[in-house]
Design brief:
single chain; 232 residues; 13 helices; mainly alpha
Length: 232
């Protein structure tokens, strides 16, 4: 919690004793917290200047340069730096995920999409990391109102954890948003309704799927079971 003292230590020793990536990553994060934008820009440039880190920290240095530009009001330069970060090669999945998440939070969903679509998850990737990436991809799709991204992420997440009611409702909603396959939407929402008969979301989704299939009478029958006053 002694960030001021930590920053003074980094300022004094990082360039002479910064032999590991963690030194520079922590240094940059402390500068972000302190909103020391000019120092952060210098650290980002220093990351790229060291031959030993050229492959491993190049992408992150672009991101930190963009943070420095954004913090100091240089929005055009920030967008350019974030684009460079999004198209660079991250060697670590966690670093790529954290950067994409930050880009989304900072209001750059298109750059976040570019980055997250490049994240490779080999067969050995654990389920937790797969789900984190898919959930973030879904959030990016929602921010961009990109139906293809929404449906792809929702389908993959549901397949990974089909018993998760939140993911099931999300996939149902994605099918309805897309509206291209009403028969699949009806089958899925009916199964969801059977699994969760007391769920109002499942009822509404099924009614909407019926409407997409031009079956208004059946949709009305479903809706009659719902008391509008029970909705928030």
């Amino acid at each position: 919690g002694m960030n001021d003292e930590a920053l003074k230590t980094f300022d004094r020793y990082a360039r002479t004793l910064g032999y590991t990536e963690d030194v520079w990553l922590t240094y940059a994060d402390v500068l972000v917290d302190a909103q020391e934008w000019e120092k952060l820009r210098g650290v980002a440039l220093q990351m790229r200047a060291m031959p030993r880190f050229r492959k491993t920290l190049d992408a992150l240095s672009r991101y930190y340069e963009g943070r420095a530009d954004l913090g100091s009001g240089r929005t055009n330069a920030a967008s350019t730096a974030f684009e460079q970060a999004a198209t660079a090669n991250f060697v670590d999945l966690t670093q790529a995920y954290d950067t994409a998440k930050s880009l989304l939070a900072l209001g750059y969903p298109q750059h976040a999409k570019t980055l997250i679509e490049k994240i490779e998850m080999p067969d050995g990737t654990d389920r937790t990391n797969r789900m984190r990436v898919l959930n973030l991809e879904f959030e990016v799709g929602m921010a961009l109102q990109d139906e293809a991204v929404i449906v792809r992420a929702a389908r993959a997440a549901h397949a990974l954890d089909p018993r998760n009611i939140i993911l099931s409702h999300r996939y149902a909603a994605a099918l309805l948003i897309e509206g291209k396959n009403p028969d699949e939407a009806i089958r899925f929402t009916r199964d969801l309704r059977d699994q969760f008969p007391s769920s109002r979301a499942a009822l509404l989704n099924q009614a909407y799927a019926l409407l997409l299939s031009r079956r208004p009478d059946e949709a009305e029958g479903q809706l009659k079971a719902l008391d509008p006053a029970s909705l928030g």
